[in-house]
Amino acid sequence: MTTTNNQPNDYTRRTLHGRGICVVIPTYNNVGSIRRVVTEVQAYCNDIIVVNDGSDDGTADILKSIKDITLVSYPKNRGKGYALKQGFTRALQLGFAYAITMDADGQHSATDIPAFLGANKQWPGSLILGNRNKGNIVRSKGSNFANSFSNFWFCVQTFHHLPDTQTGFRLYPLKKLYGYQLITSRYEAELELLVFASWNGVAIHSIPVNVYYPPKEERVSHFRPGLDFTRISILNTCLCFLAIIYGLPAFLLRTIAKAIRTLTTFLMLFVVVLIFWPTLFLYTHIRTMNDHRRWHLHLLMYRVMRLMTIKVGIPGAKFQFKAIKTDDFDEPSIIICNHQSHLDLLCLLAMTPKIVFLTNDWVWHSPIFGFLIHNAEYYPASDGIDNILPHFHSLISRGYSIAIFPEGTRSADCKVARFHQGAFYAAEKLGIGIKTILLYGTGRVLPKKKHTVSRSPVYIEVGKSYSPDELKQIGEPRQQAKFFHHLYLDWFEKVANKIEQNV
Asked: Which of 236, 315, 340, 375 could form a disulfide with 153 if both were Cys (CB 3.0 to 4.6 A apart)?
């Protein structure tokens, strides 16, 4: 089950630690499997918390002999729910943001840990469930019934369907574990955690995972059909009651809050248009535009965007500008930036008035904003870099920088897409450098092809500037495109690892 190629495992270990993800393994009397389980996990993760839930079969002695783990132990068996609470508490004390939980009986495969890491990157802040592949697996009728029973009641209590609510292979966002100190002490606690998370708006996603069940005669099970079904039935009765008085009202409040966020955002934009559009229209039409008047137009746009992003803010978005100095944009350059959302332009415009953009045809031909785009000396990318270069020379001579998104379009999944070479070709022809800027979170606040506003931090960082000589050392524009694409991939991952611990 452990791979022989250490390079992917080293990346997984490094990234898990960077994103604040540990592995929590509760165990009770798993003397025959605990060493193997922990050893296999160590191939992928350096941060392992094992909770010894009062084992009396030699498991404790084995755990004491395993190096490089955090051990939580107590003498009396208290149940899986209690063990999970102890593991989560220790993980939070150690500064972790997420915990992958695995059973100690060997049914879960450590080779699926990278899949949980990938899911965490795709859905930061979400609770991830491992949907067990049940093909060719012999399970008891009681186990099958218990899973179907649990899935049904979870759907009733939360209005969400999940394929496997009893899996113990999960990734929990520790800072979003609502009421985890109140959960019951036995195995049904895992269902409670799911229900509480759903009620409080935590996104829940499932990913396929492998599972191994040893032959029936070798299995170690602490499941007591009569008593445990009675406990789960009582619990579901209580949860159904709570769903009416808490879960449903919480869902309605979240829905209303999201609608208000979206409405407020578009009202803000409407007010800005209502107030400033006539002013800008008159400003650009009453008198002939010259360089001096165009500069004041840029200055006005800069102040409005700073008001919207920094002073007032957009509902759901918490803007954080880092490493931005007053002299960052004194030297004209080609500004490159990853592209996730329409909000990207607001962020860049709020950084300096000395900036112009390449736009798409839709913006250039807009009957509402077209006059503003033209007078601000933005140019459509469809005209081709060679045809626009004379205009760029004029802008550069007046101290402006040109912002170009090398991806060419907004990223639908917020990942950094392939870079085109146009920006680097323009820098070469103009004899100027490249300034790098990274945006994070705008695509989560206002995703591509969606019209609702979600909550997310928005982080903007000005990176290194590259002089023409440094660009020549990198190579031709095509080589520069590859170089900066890889640079942004690494840069984005470092920022994401830091920011997404608090998403």
From this structure: 236
